[in-house]
Design a protein that fits this description.
With 440 residues, the chain is α/β, with parallel strands linked by helices. It has eleven helices and 20 strands. The relative contact order is 0.10.
């Protein structure tokens, strides 16, 4: 019989240690080690999980067939674009996000659309089959072809699907399924890692497209070891606020397409509906804006998107001024404030500065620097930026406005939405010139 011993796993990254450690040497997390039983196979025995793929040995590159893949179109143009043009057969996609973001609703809609092209199985580990049907009747129409499998034993699920050979499966969620050969409870580091590995092996062997739902921790990271994100082919994550009616789905990893692509949904009673033009959503109403607001022409993934950057500058109530950023990089904001103080003569050392991107979209590219700086300058002077002006450009530490990629596409998107004047590195060589050009 197999012997068992106790090992300690880091709940943040999956690092294994024979003894408890206060700090993980791999991810530097404190008090993250949990004790887990671990089975030792007897000498000469087979491993707990065995691969069913045939060992054909090394293959010369010229003997391998062409890599042309026929992607499966879902019928949601924006979501297909996030995946890189559709679902790749044999891929494993992880969908994460906070509770209530719409992970299960989105995958149920995708499964129902794919069911018209072949058999699709929805493995529900968190809900009963009746609960899934109740939700499907509310958000879907004509989803009778979808198969629901209420089971948490993943080995039983994969053995059953081996005989049926569906074109796609959805596992909701990876934290609720378990393998009998892994001696740990469902949701543990060991079970999440082994279940994901089993799904990856099944997807590559059969060509079935697999989707898994991943929970998040209180810190906002996907629960389970970091290895989970490395095993899958694509990581999609719901970001931004989930209390409103809009949802932003971003691709953080994609082996078959570009990353940082976004898809914007509107949550309705009938499910999630795509927003074809996100720029109009993020800009809100086209009215005269107050001071401290600028429109930035950004590139999200491969598409130009216009967003509104807001800033508020006020006298510091205490000795140390506050600098807070929402949906922006905090360190980037501190650098922009320093450039404004040194290169443009703004005395911000005794002022609180708050900066935010409206609409919930997170902007991390340096091309938003000029828009952030102009919004702060506008709020400090209490002078509104003209409503027809859009900006983009990267700020250097010497105050120069540096060029960014896809400048023509950014300007074209701004002109298409009615912004007649674009402030960019082509007409503003430094931050002082840009402030004079916009604010006078």
């Amino acid at each position: 019989m197999a012997k068992s011993r106790s090992v300690y796993f880091c709940s943040g990254c999956g690092f294994e240690s024979p003894r408890w450690l206060g700090r993980c040497p791999q991810c530097d997390a404190w008090n993250s080690f949990d004790e887990r039983p671990f089975a030792i196979a007897p000498k000469g025995g087979r491993a707990a999980t065995t691969s069913r793929t045939s060992n054909v040995g090394p293959i010369p590159l010229h003997e391998i067939g062409s890599a042309g893949i026929n992607r499966i179109r879902i019928g949601l143009p924006e979501f297909d674009a996030v995946l890189g043009g559709g679902i790749v057969p044999g891929s494993l996609t992880l969908v994460g996000g906070p509770p209530g973001a719409g992970k299960s609703t989105l995958l149920l809609q995708i499964a129902a659309r794919l069911a018209a092209q072949g058999e699709v199985v929805y493995v529900c580990g968190e809900e009963s089959a009746a609960q899934v049907k109740l939700r499907a009747e509310r958000v879907l129409a004509g989803a009778d072809m979808l198969h629901v499998y209420p089971e948490t034993n993943l080995r039983s699920v994969l053995d059953t699907l081996d005989r049926r050979r569906p074109i796609a499966i959805v596992v909701d969620s990876i934290q609720t399924v378990w393998l009998p050969e892994a001696e740990a409870y469902a949701g543990s580091v060991t079970q999440i890692r082994d279940c994901t590995q089993a799904l990856m092996e099944y997807a590559k062997r059969t060509g079935c497209a697999c989707f898994i739902v991943g929970h998040v921790t209180k810190d906002g990271a996907i629960a389970g070891p970091r290895l989970l994100e490395h095993l899958v082919d694509t990581v999609l994550y719901f970001e931004g606020e989930t209390s409103g009616e809009h949802r932003i789905l971003r691709a953080y990893k994609n082996r078959f397409g570009s990353i940082d692509e976004i898809c914007v949904f509107t949550m309705r009673d009938s499910g999630l509906q795509e927003v074809a033009n996100p720029s109009q959503l993020f800009l809100g109403a086209r009215a005269e804006r107050a001071s401290g607001s600028s429109v930035v022409a950004s590139i999200v993934g491969s598409r130009p998107v216009l967003v509104e950057v807001q800033a508020l500058v006020g006298e510091a109530a205490y000795g140390t001024p506050r600098r807070l950023a929402n949906n922006l990089d905090q360190q980037r904001l501190a650098m922009i404030i320093a450039v404004l103080e040194r290169r443009a003569g703004f005395a911000l050392g005794t002022h609180d500065v708050y900066a935010s991107v409206a609409g919930g979209l997170r902007i991390v590219e340096p091309a938003a620097d000029l828009g952030i700086a102009l919004a702060i300058a506008s709020s400090f002077r209490n002078v509104a930026i003209p409503a027809q002006v859009a900006v983009f450009g990267e700020l250097g530490l010497s105050g120069e406005v540096r060029g960014v990629h896809a400048a023509d596409r950014r300007a074209a998107e701004a002109k298409k939405l009615g912004y007649t004047e674009v402030v960019s590195p082509s007409n503003a060589r430094d931050i002082a010139a840009a402030i004079r050009l916009v604010l006078g």
